[in-house]
Amino acid sequence: MQIQQALPELLIKIADDELIIGHRNSEWTGLGPVMEEDIAFSSMAQDKIGHAWAIYRILQEHFEGQDPDQFAFMRDAAAYKCCHLVEMPIGAYEFSLMRHFLFDHAETARYQSFSQSSFTPLQQLAGKIKGELKYHTLHADAWILQLCKAGEESRQRMQGALDDCFQLAGGIFEPGKEEALLISENIYPGEQALYQQWLSTISPVIEKAGLIMPQMTAPVYGGRQGQHTQYLQQLLNEMGEVFRLDPEATW
Amino acid sequence: MQTITTLQAVYNALDHVKDPEIPVLSVLELGMITDVRIDLEGVHIKMIPTFSACPAINVIKENITNAVERELQMPAFVTVDKEVNWNSNRLTESAKEKLRNYGIAPPARHEGEVNLDMLIKADCPHCGSENTYLRSPFGSALCRALHVCRQCGMMFEQFKPLS
């Protein structure tokens, strides 16, 4: 595989993760359990979709990609490369919170590695996004710790959410066929290295919260190859409903 | 000398462009302008958003174009500078003072990295007390966090420190 094909594959999966989790986060707007959480999930949604847009722009400018709006809204489900974790419905609040905790630490590990990337547009973007992500992980860590110490029912629900999310989160690091080349070209260190980095940042928080860390026995793969849960198509239908009424409209 | 005068005029025009979300601060005071160049085509201005997903970026770009074209009677070309990232040290001291008077706690100066303490700490812009706590790292705009003052009991927003 050539680097001209390998790089877009990496970029698409990262951006699709951000677009889809951004949409899921936005579903909490108006429904947050307290006002601050309503604002937090809405703000994080805005950040994630902004990050996705920035990467779609890189694809457009450097790899003759489509217009970011068209690319975000007009593809078939099988053309999306997001992992299953981000596709899942928002569920109960603890599920969304745990997903946010696991995803944002993974994203932080990813952008930290990109700040050393030999691909300049990604390296420049990493500098910007890294600082913003601190607020996301600060938010996630604070609530995980707080809710795990808020009584037995609360702790049990958080443990349940961790157990429900953990194998799905393993899917963030699904190995890709483009990886060896990207590693040798110093684009990024590869999924296995990011997975190890992720484990080392989430473990202390999980331990401090008094949760039991599950074993990664069956990470949920397939998303990076375009195989998705039924939930993605439903989400895409809703997400693109207005856009598809008139794809040529300018806003 | 002509060029120097004209550059000054561009900066004067830029100082008239206020941030739509914090109307007491200009794009210059916020440190959003990274380069100004004048050639035969017109004025070329490079700018950067504070937060990458800032929804106001297109409005600000338009406001800059309009202000420069109106005040200088020259075409203006505003582009986003990808080589420079905004960080909160770019806020001028006068901007921080204006923020405080506007009721928003300014970000503390950082040394390249923002640590956890810095995210959590903000002095109350109303009574000046340090006895405050972070209520939520997200506020009414991407660049703001919510804090509460234990001294005067007021909730207030902080312009987030960003490295």
From TrEMBL, chain A:
InterPro entries found in the cross-reference section: Aromatic_CoA_ox/epox, Ferritin-like, Ferritin-like_SF, PaaA_PaaC, PaaC
Organism superkingdom: Bacteria
Keywords: Oxidoreductase
EC number: 1.14.13.149
Molecular function GO labels: phenylacetyl-CoA 1,2-epoxidase activity
NCBIfam families (alphabetical): PA_CoA_Oxy3
Protein name per Swiss-Prot or TrEMBL: Phenylacetate-CoA oxygenase subunit PaaC
Organism: Chitinophaga rhizophila
Gene: paaC
From TrEMBL, chain B:
Start and end residues of each PaaD zinc beta ribbon domain: 121-160
Top-level taxon in the UniProt lineage: Bacteria
Short name of one Pfam family: FeS_assembly_P
Domain MIP18 family-like residues, every copy: 8-72
Signal sequence, renumbered to the chain: none
Gene3D superfamilies documented for this protein: Fe-S cluster assembly (FSCA)
Protein name: Phenylacetate-CoA oxygenase subunit PaaJ
Gene name linked to the record: paaJ
